[in-house]
Amino acid sequence: MVEKTGEVVAQPLLVRRVAWLTRLARELAARLVAARWNVADLDALACGVGLDGRALPAKGWMAVRRLGWAVAPAVGVYVCDRVLRCAQEQAARALRLALHRRRLVAAIMTTWPQDPPERTSAEWDALRMALPDGVSSAEVHNRTRQIRAYHGEHGALPADLTELEEPPKVAAQIVLAAADRQLVTLERAGSRGARLRVRLPLVASPASAKDWAWHLLPISLPPTVPPQGTLCTPTLRVVKGRVRVDLPFQIPIDVAPATGHTIGCGFDWGVNTLLTGTAARLADGRVVSDGRPLTYDATVISAKLHRLRAERAHLATKHQHQRRLLTGLTPTDPCHEKLAAACRRLGVEQERVCARIRNLNRALAWSAARWAVDQATAVNATVIYLEDLATLQARGRRGRANARLSGQVRGQIVAAIRHLAAKHTIAVVTVPARGTSKYCPRCGNGSSMLRHCPAPDRLTEKGWAWAYCPACGLSCDRDWGAAERIASRGLLGQRATRTHRTTGARTIPTAVEGNVSRARRPRRSTRAARRARRTQTDLHPRPAARDRSKNRPTPKRRRRAPNNSGSDAMTSSRVPDRRTVPAPPPTGNGKRPAGHAPQPERHQPYPAGHVRNSHHRTGFHHTKATPVLALAEHGSGSCYARPSCLTPSGS
Ligand SMILES: [Zn+2]
What we know:
Number of helices: 15
Bound molecules: zinc ion
Distance between the termini: 53 Å
Shape: globular
């Protein structure tokens, strides 16, 4: 509604007016960014001192003004100073992000490795020294690839980021946070709504202040915004013919303390099991683990991601090839139009596959993070320990792990865990990754090496998934053992916790080793197992490996009898002609589509003995995740010693 006249503005007209405003802001910001995309101006912004010798303020538009970087609209167009501010804010954010990339690129180029795809561990150390804090390995890989591509094309390393990249693109949006009451106001209307007042242009290129008018926009708030949340000034943009309001809000949360934790959860990154964790408690300076492995197995999803990534690479090659062919054709060529259309179609398809990968990555990351935080709240843990992704790089398992799950997903999971844990006042601390699965968590204390084998009944073979300690006889999943060591490193090394000054990320830089005992006693062996031990036979005999050597004539394939329908068509011997398992009972309502199941807001710990259906929690059909179980009693030290409350009773 237009405030002054009370005229109700139809949706399409409102969309057009907002689009005019965002276009004005985008043009101004893009012009400013393009004008300052050079070494001298980026240096001026990076040094953080304005023309008057004072330090630059944190607010982007103020910093830009302090540097004297003015921007004016086209001749004959009137915009108020607040719109200029919004444009300057947007430009400053784009340039400051570029400064981060510039530092990264500079660090990579000063420590340019001998063989760029594979850095040696000394080269990684040198690079880590030069890099700014909090840079993930995925960022390093991506930038290295970008510089290599430039090197391949130009035969030399770029002098600066401005040579490596075009000026960053500016989105068509208006960052109203930089403006004040002269352009925008926002107030809450009831618990489920808000009223946004904003000045919008009435024509595409307003010539005077008369072409601007205050508009009232009612906003309905989603249920994720709690009534006590404080709304912040939004950003407006137009997406697919609708006005979108990016509305940040603040809720008060307590700060989790860095030290003084007694119950914590440790999580290890696996290859296919995305996360393997354990709950542990600190009792009289000793770490006691809960004895229950917590796994989030996303094998099927990561296989899907793997397939999609292969498809993306295939499409990219094809697209590149078509574009190369297209450059060789003149526009008058009869083939040109056909090829151009095919090229466009391929571009769209590639974009869609990329979006699918992004969405799946994000959904997986949030689902895994939600599960991890739920596990921590269920055992009343006050801290979650994770491996430091920066130190993970130096380990040998990178090649295989990254083939399935990119480091980017892990970075997203860490960010999501931090976000969700903060709401429950749970600290998230990273510990050094080196040697977590190398030493025995039970007796190792940093000295007794684990033997890695393929399975618990093949302890003499070399493998990956299973860990066996010859000294104490511990035999467990490799990642579970690593998770126990991560939890123990965290709980024992609490005093060395450091908090990053700007990001607030907590980390323990030194590894403090200590043995972990398991509270849960092994279950009484079954009668079959006792008999097997007594008679010295194998409880689970494996069939003898098939002899694959070619020392006999190839046997004839057995032909299947013709089926009842009378046709003599051959059916494959691999497909059974009827179901080998009974069909599942019809439920009537079908499968729930993938995605987040609606969950009620929960602030209280789970009641004792409560079992959640993990499938509802993860949002994926094919993810196998340990159900979240609440422990009956806590605080008295008895919660790990009661196997009855650890055993799932339902599902
Ligand atoms: Zn051991």
